[in-house]
Description:
Blueprint: E1 3-6, H1 13-21, E2 27-30, H2 40-43, E3 51-53, E4 59-61, H3 63-72, H4 86-111, H5 123-144, H6 158-171, H7 181-191, H8 194-202
Parallel strand pairs: 1-2
Antiparallel strand pairs: 1-3, 3-4
Helix pairs in contact: 1-3, 1-6, 1-8, 4-5, 4-6, 6-7
Amino acid sequence: MTTLFISPGACSLASHVAVRELALPIQVERVALRTADSPIHAINPLGRVPALQLDDGTVLTENSAILPYLADLVPGTPLFAPAGSVERAQIQGWLGYLAAEVHAASFRPLNRPERYSADTGAHDGIRAQARVQLYRAFEHIERHLENRTWLVGERFTLADAYLGVFSLWLGRIGGEFEQLTAVARLRQAFLGRAAVREALGVEGLA
Length: 206
């Protein structure tokens, strides 16, 4: 059986939500992160989630690849758009932006400054600059959502499944991020979806 490996509260929640939105017969397995004995290392050498292991043993990694793959298993799903369409490209564009500008460029140095300097004295500065970068990244999203509920096509898509996870992370930071009212509206709409509540329940985060 195809298995999706996730860790509670990690970015893998996006793919977990997609599995439930699409009602796919995929097993979801929780694994620990950043522990040497975690089974994720036998699946993904990078030790990261999400990781999707197919029936034939093939492993797919990264939300930006797994989310489109899952949606394409259900042709016509409103979570994605037809090949060659502008909407499909827009959704993929947001997936790329969220992976690069929000996750890798902002949340990662904010949460793990040791990856950017071995000097512990530099960590506070790294976190401070990462916070500035994170706010800038979300300002762009905030402007886009000013008169919208969702990122593309006025419906919940793969892009919103990914952004919804980061909106939850943002809710724990507070401070200036509380000014992002459009993002807060998306967070509440995200939490209102049955698939999101089910995924959070399975991850022990309801």
